[in-house]
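Model it.
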Amino acid sequence: MNILICSDGTPASDNAARLGGLLAGATQARVTLLGIAENPSDEQPLRRALDQETDILRRTGVEPKTAIQPGEPTAQILGETSVKKYDLIVIGSRRRNASGRTYEIIKAIEPPVLVAIGACERLSRILLCSGGKHFIDDAVRLTGTLAAALHAEVTLFHIVAEPPAIYAHLVRLEENVDALLASGSELGRNLLAEKKALEKLGVVVNVRVRHGFVVDQLLDEMREGNYDMIVSGSSRARGPLRHYIMGDVTQHILDSAECSVLVARYRPPGPAKGLWQSLARLFR
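Modeled.
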């Protein structure tokens, strides 16, 4: 695994170094610590901060490669990730509510982005938000890889919109997780496949399903679950511009989370694949 930790010399970047070091130490990843000086006057304070962040990483057994680049942060991170392959980008958030720049970075770059919120000392409980569709497979694999290395427990979490009262029997089915996973429904099959993929990596998995308004239920789960990291997603925008779209749910998570947030990349199937899958279902 190849991890890029980005620093602007602020305390939030120290949090990114701590979290990146925790992950890199567990996964034996290679680490690049990239300092970005937006103004010439920032360079000397940035060098001092990078020395401190290098010490933080060394205490986790990680020896980073360090570089400093001048310029606008989003552009510099985009440039770095365009010429080198990284599996994960770690950035710090200066406050609980994510800034516009955090959103810009998440939307602009190709690799998954881990936003360090607060001083993370451990990663033992991970909440993986699932839409119940196949296009989260990459997020499941990444979460499973990290969780296995960290010996962390994963809660696979899905929210179902509240149906009309006449479908109350469906609510009862979906609230019974074991029955849902054995039901053969599309949601049941997909959640079961995600659970098995995580378990194959040696991860302990809990499946939770809640009903109601998505944002309300998600925020309740975040408050009640005492999680160390939340995994949500973003999808590639249609058209020639290579950027990602953050849905309202991911933005609400970033704005409200009191722990770090991993924004994974969801890849919907292309038109051809989707067509063949639809045709194949007709003959099952």
